[in-house]
Amino acid sequence: MPTNLPLSGHNIVLTGTKMTHSVSSHILERGGNVYHLPLIAVQEATSSNDGEKLAKALNSEWLIFTSQNAVEAFSQKLARASLSIEKSRAKIATVGEKTASALEKIGFQIDFMPSTYSADKFVVEFPKVAGKVESCLFLKGSLAKATIKKGLPFPVDEWTVYETIQNTEHISELTTLIQKSKDATIIFASPSAVDVFNKYVVPQTSWRGYQIAAIGHVTEQALLNAGAMVDVKPEKYTMLAIIEELAKKKGRSS
Fold it and tell me: pLDDT by residue (tens digit) across 107-116?
């Protein structure tokens, strides 16, 4: 591996549930080392009235998705019930390119996506496009904040389609990596990952001695509240944007 690459020898830790091939390739092509050590896990949330909720979803005027996990859980429910999205009359509103891509893969067309991938921006821009809405369903995770429901000027029903749980199986490996690494960046994409890191890793390592990157202002605020300093926070809320900004920062300092 050439030593003049911007991330040469740099250890980059991804703490979220998913790591795509494109993210790994971006890091490796710039000379970095990739460690996927998820601090959270997700699982589909099921209930006895899922069939009733699916019917309601397919007949809603709008469906709102803010995560790939919600799309995956919804897709699993559709498949289990042998239902097709072709039966849906709903328009689709989403936050983020990855979520939009996941929806398109299962056959949905995207009718609205905010200019900035955040719920705060969504609740400002969406009503201007949607107009008067009579039935709107937000498919969410168990830890989703109330921003969507409280921020929109019309009634929003919610359906928790997946649960987020702590994943502590990588704590020892992550702690050791931080303690031994002279050059590392920990990337956080959710407040829930920040909580797990703060509870299990920080008591052994502190928040110092490595760089911290955050996707989105909500995750950034969670880090600041926990006592961390955020070194990398791109304007675009994507993993690739973090890698690009980190590479530019490292390139300037080398």
Answer: 999 999 998 8
Length in residues, the chain? 254
Reported pTM: 0.83
Q: How many CB atoms lie within 10 A of CB 198?
A: 18
Picking from 116, 162, 228, the residue whose alpha carbon sits closest to that of residue 17 is 162
- DSSP string for residues in the chain: --TTSTTTT-EEEE-SS---HHHHHHHHHTT-EEEE--SEEEEE---TTHHHHHHHHHT-SEEEE--HHHHHHHHHHHHHTT--GGG---EEEESSHHHHHHHHHTTPPP-B--SSSSHHHHHHHHHHHH-S-S-EEEEEETT--SHHHHHSSS--EEEEEEEEEE--TTHHHHHHHHHH-SSEEEEE-SHHHHHHHHHHTHHHH-S-SSEEEESSHHHHHHHHHHT----B--SS-SHHHHHHHHHHHHHHH-
SS3 81: coil
Per-residue pLDDT of 60-93, as tens digits, reads 999 999 999 999 999 999 999 888 887 788 999 9
d(CA 140, CA 163) in angstroms, rounded, equals: 9
Residue type, 248: K
Distance CA 45, CA 222 (A): 25
